[in-house]
Amino acid sequence: MRPIRFATTALAVTALTAPLAAPPAVADGFHDRHWPPHHSNGKAERLRWAAPADFRIGTAVAGGGHHTEQDYPDPFTSDRKYRKVLARQFDSVSPENQMKWEYIHPEQGEYDFEMADRIVDFAWRHGQVVRGHTLLWHSQNPDWLEEGDFTEEELRAILRDHITTVVGRYKGRIQQWDVANEIFDGDGELRTEENIWLRELGPGIIADAFRWAHQADPHAELYLNDYNVEGVNAKSDAYYELSRELLADGVPLHGFSAQGHLSLDYPFPGSMEENLRRFDELGLGTAVTEVDVRMTLPESGEPTEEQLDTQADYYRQALQACLDVDSCDSFTIWGFNDKYSWVPVTFEGQGSATVMTDDYTRKPSFFALHEALKEEKKWPGWPGHGRGGHWR
Ligand code: 9MR
Fold it and tell me: Any idea what the CATH number is for the domain that residue 344 is in?
């Protein structure tokens, strides 16, 4: 059953700019497990078309966060070309900022779903799944929460209400939720100072967050998500131990994901496949959720050919690590064109981190992803790929 037929891109763009009717995110009669079809009316040069049927290729949807301080309007709502590429190339989308607390829950007891609804609706119309980001984090929380004077009991109730309300609103529309984001520091210690929930309520709140999310949407896959956990290291070890404990306690944890913010200034994390595989062997789903590959730019501000080639190789290796692990069926890049990337805003002198230039010209890294997806589709599980050599 396909509850809603696919709209053409042109229609969809018109619909997006037209006044919104009732929030489209909450559809009647939508069966939880019927994700929009893996769309395949694309041309051969589209990433989503190149991808195997069981594999999602995604991107962040630009808006909020650092974008609000740039000299361009909100990319998702204002840039038609951006939406066109977003719809054509990807079959998974992650709101870059629009589902974070400061956007979706700006005042105590007041939710603002407008942007999140638009993204979820766009995704539905374009046959894309959505990764929800994020529910329990130390960053981008509103002042009313961080500076409020709440008792433990009140804070628990606030978190429970938030998770129940947000996850419940998009029930059946979100494939994976980053329930807990960046809860460990680089030494593999829980962030018990920065993270308001861990600081005020203790580590047991992690399990509660997963339980509440599961109650609100029993079919959403619930993830632990972090950066610098691509390879085997102290931080990913901490996640491995935590995952084992949560699973042993019967907590509805379904997956572990590595963000994949990589840099040419550091070697590629060579143990990425090994790391994802050990979570896979725990019975968890795995995903790569925020890939970009930044670099220190020459004085000209333009990357050299060599830099672009090495970058392409990093992208390819990251994707291949995921393709080679059976449970890793979702690979998301953190934006697709340099113009909207968070990298130059955060790291002085660095940039060119995405797969397309400012004007959407595809870089070698785009073609590296495309090629790796195409090969996997043609020869699933070959040679020696972990995906089992069959269509799942
Ligand atoms: O890309 C996001 C940027 O627009 C925000 O300003 C920034 C604020 O923290 O968050 C960025 O996204 C982050 C993501 O939510 C979690 N992992 C790291 C990402 C890059 O900082």
Answer: 3.20.20.80
